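For the sake of clarity, the format in which proteins appear in this thesis is described at this point. The record quoted next illustrates the convention:

___
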Amino acid sequence: MDAKTGDISGCPFHGDGGTRSLLGRTNRDWWPDQLNLEILTEGGRAADPMGEDYNYCEAFNALDYTALKKDLTDLMTDSQPWWPADYGHYGPFFIRMAWHAAGTYRTGDGRGGASSGQQRFAPLNSWPDNGNLDKARRLLWPIKQKYGKHISWADLFILTGNVAIESMGGPVFGFGGGRKDVFDPETVYWGTEEQWVDTGAETRIIPDEGKALENPLAAIQMGLIYVNPEGPGGNPHDAEGMARDMRETFARMAMNDEETVALTAGGHAFGKCHGAAPSDTFGSAPEGENLHRMGFGWLTDPEEIEKGHITTSGIEGSWTPNPTQWGNDYFRLLFKYDYELTKSPAGAYQWTPVNPEEADLAPDARDPNKKVPTIMTTADMALKRDPEYRKISERFLNDQAALDDAFARAWFKLTHRDMGPKVRYLGPEVPAEDLIWQDPIPAGTQISDSDLSSFKSKVLDSGLSVAELVKAAWASASTYRNSDHRGGANGAHIRFDEIRNWAVNDPEELGKVLNKLDEIRGGISMADAIVIAGSAAVEKAAKDAGFDISVPVTTGRGDAKREDFDAESWEPLEPFADGFRNYLKTKASVKTEDLLIDRAHLLGLSIPEMTVLVGGLRALGAVSKHAKHGNKIGALTETPGKLDNSFFLNLLHMGTVWEVVDESGDEEFVGRCRIHGSEKWRATRTDLVFGSNSRLRAVAEVYAENGNEEKFVRDFVKAWTKVMDADRFDLEYAKYHR
C-alpha cells in the first residue's frame, strides 16, 4: 500500500486477476522434464552435503584471503580458448556476473540477492538476462575447487566482481564475506507470466491501462534483472517510460536516483553488450539443454565464439573506447555526441554516436587493431533525456571524485544489501563506516538474573494484560525477515511512530504498552524490555494453564538511534497480512492462508513451529483488533490469556460445522453447533486451514490430543523464543570478527 496515497495496487500480491498461486510459475512449469529430486528431500532429509558440523564462518576465517584475491586477479587476463575474454580481460564479464547475482534483490519481501548463490540454480541460471553467465561460473570453478569449503560460491561471485573492478582501476568501497551457500533453488515468487522477456512478454507497467508493477516484484519483465535496455516493452522512443521503469525498478532494489545513475554509468564503463547474431541461432538455456552439454547453455559453434559472434542482450558494442579501464569516458561520450537509433546484427534497438571521432571508437572485442563505434542503450539514453537523471549525470561528468565515491558506495550497497546487519560481515575488507541502510544498532548490555527477575515482577504488576504484552513483543520481533535479515526485536524500532502506527500493531494499544515499559524499565534497553515483558506474560499464561515453565530470554539488545532509522526503507516491512495475529488489510489476489505461509517462511519457521505459534497466540488473545473473528474475545477460545491448546480443541471439535459468512467473500466463517445450529465461533481462513489442509491438520491434531498439553506449551515456548531471538546476529557472529 502506498502510504502517501492509500493506493493498494502496489500491495504485496494484490492484483485484479482473481485468486492465484503464491508461487507463480515454478521450475516445473518452465521445464516439465526437469529431474525430480524433491522426493529425496522428503522427511526432512537435507540436500546440503556439508552436514550440520560445517561452520562456514570458521571456514571463511581460515581462508588465505590474499592468495585468493591474487588468483582471481590472475584469472582476469588468463583468457581460455573455449570462451575467450573480450579485450583479453574477463573483468567486465565477472562484474556482470556479480551484478546479476546481487541484482535480483527486492525490498518488497527481501528475497533475491546474492546471499546464497542462487544464480547457480534454475530459474536464475536460465533467465534471458543471465545469458552466458554459465561460462563465467565455469571459469571460476578451478578457483572454487582450489579453496573449497573456505569460500562459498555466493561470496566468490561478489568478491570476483570486486577484484574485477580493482583490476581495471575502478574504486571499491569494501567487501564483507559470510554468505553461506544453499543447495536447493529457493522458493521465490518471480511473477505469473508464461513467457520470458525475449519471447514477446509485455512490460509490467502500462500506465494507460492502469497497470502498475506488482509487489513484491522489482524487475520490469519476467527474466530480467532490471529493465529492458531497448525501452519499455522494447520501444526505444518511449523516453519518459524508460526513465519511469528505471526509477521504479531501481527503487524496489533500494536505490535512489543518484545510486541508479552511478551504478549504470559505473557498470557500463566496462565491457560491452553482445548481439552479433539473431538469438534463434543459439542453443537453449542451461536448464533446458541436452544432457551431454553438462549444464552449458546458449551454445554456438566454437569458431563463432572465437570470432566474438555471441548474443546475450542482443545489443552489440561497448559503451566506451576503453572498455577495460575505469574512467569517465561513459559520460564524456554520452554528452559529447548526438545519438541516432540503429539496430544490432541481432535486430535489437541501440543508439550510436553521430560522426564519432577516430579517438572515440572502441577496439573490437577480439581484434585490437580493428575499431568499431561505441553504443548506448535506451536505458543509457535516459540518463541524458530525463531531467533529474541528467542533473546527476552532468555533475558526475564534471566531478570524477564524486563519481568514484558514488559508484563504489552504490556497488557495495548492491552487493551487500541482502546481508542484513553489518555484524554479519566477515573478512579483512569490511568498511569501518556504518551505513544507514545497514540499520545500525548500538551494542546493548547484558542484564543480571536479579534485575531480570525484578523487571518481570514490575511488568506483571503494571496492569498490562497478557494479550497486550504478548502482542507488543510479537509486533517488535516478527518484523524480522530471514530473506535479507532486516527487522526483528533488536533496536526496538517498534517505538518509532512510523512502525508503531502500522495498522496491524493496534497503535493506540501498543503505544500504551511501550509508554508503561519505558516508565518501569530503569537501565534496561527498550529492545530488551519489550521481549522480556512478552516472555513474562507467556510464563504467566502457562502458569495459569497449569504449567510452571521458564521462557528463555537472551538480553543485550540495543536501542537504535532515531538518526540511524531510515523510515522509508522500513515501509516494505509493514505486513499486508499477518495470520499469526489474524490480520488482513484487504482481500488479496492469493489465498489468505498463502500469506500466512509466506510470512512463516520469512520468519524461518517450520510447519510445526508455525502451527503451534498460531494456536498459542490465539489462546493468549494476541489477535489484532482489526480482526473481529473468533469468539467475543477474538481468539477461538473460552479462556483467553491462558497458554493452552484450546484453539485446536475447539477448531477440530466434531460438534461444530462451519459455513461462510456471505458478506465476507469467503474470508470469514461461522461455526455452529451441529445439533442445535446455534453460533459458537467466528473464524478466518487462517484459522480453518489448520483443520482443512491435511498436512496442517495432522500437526494440529497432535496438539489437540490428550496427553500433549504440556508438549504444546513447551513447543510454543521454543518457537516463541526462536522468533524473539531471530535477529541476534550480534551474539552469533561476534566471535568470528578478527
Observations:
- The two ends are 43 Å apart (CA to CA).
- Residues 226-407 form a domain with the Peroxidase; domain 2 fold (CATH 1.10.420.10).
